[in-house]
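Running this now, will post back.
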Amino acid sequence: MTDQYRHIGNATSEVAADSELLILVDEADCEIGFLNKTACHRGAGVLHRAFSLLVFNDEGELLLQQRAASKRLWPLYWSNSCCSHPRRNETLETAIHRRLREELDLSCPLQFLFKFKYQAQFDEASGEQELCSVYAGRSNGPVKINPNEIRAWRWISPETLRAELAEDDPERFTPWFRLEWERVWRDHRAELRALRQISCS
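Update: finished.
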């Protein structure tokens, strides 16, 4: 299954509307208000709550997705298995499982690894600024992608991924995935090995 690659045709819209309200937070992750998605990503971005999911299979390979061409930020870049934002009055626990189903039609236990803050600039007019919670899980269920969100997907071994990241092509992987994977590989390999003991489909 190594480096399996699947592609689907062009997408025309995103699941999450630009008018969706995101949760604004301070650096301690305390809610301080709400702002629509478009405004949150204007300029350098406004700090808001987000999450990233890393899904592995039995062989220890990571599921990567290529973002749809219709994405306003980092279209066609490769990224982690799934990432998004909790809705207003929605817990992270509810949001991570909802989004995993919406984007990949998968369901599995997800273990919290860490939280990190980052800012990344896409162009002069837009950027991303998030306090992002990272979770990992294991699934062997069939992947059924939402073409509005994802253009293609593949399974990749950690060794191959590290080699691709080392090629230093800034337009290949999203900036948040580069940051989180560096920390996952440095600090959380024990948790990833433990995922092999979790049975899910």
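Residues 53 and 82 are 5 Å apart (CA to CA). More later if anyone needs it.
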